[in-house]
Design brief:
With 128 residues, the chain is α+β, with helices and mostly antiparallel strands. It contains 5 helices and 6 strands, in the order H-H-E-E-H-E-H-H-E-E-E. Helix content is 33%, strand content 28%. The chain has a 6-stranded mixed β-sheet. Mean pLDDT is 85; it is low at 118-125.
Length: 128
Amino acid sequence: MNKTPLYKQLEKELSGYKNILSQAAEVIQDQDVSKFPIFVIHQNIVDIGINIVDREVVRGSWSVNASTLEEFVTKQIIAEEKVEDFQLLYRSHPEDLCLFALSELGANFIFLPKNNTPEEESPELHPT
């Protein structure tokens, strides 16, 4: 995988968000909202999910909305015929957070480790 400086920077910027995202993922799963929480990270206003981090409030570069696979299908971001493939990919990352990054690079799914480690690698990216 090509680990560009922009993606390494994104990973660094998101390291402070991991605790709240991990907690939100647990709540979404534990309360049977969805088995597949997805966090939309963005710098502009988006019409998907529920805002849980406002970049203006946290003085960060990214706002985050909590969403689910089901909402992504309803809004036709993920086609129904791709749901099973997405679920397999999602399940292959049990220790990661699933992020949908909207940036100047386009839209990408990123699987980012839930825990920060000293030798943490760049997130795994999956273009849409």
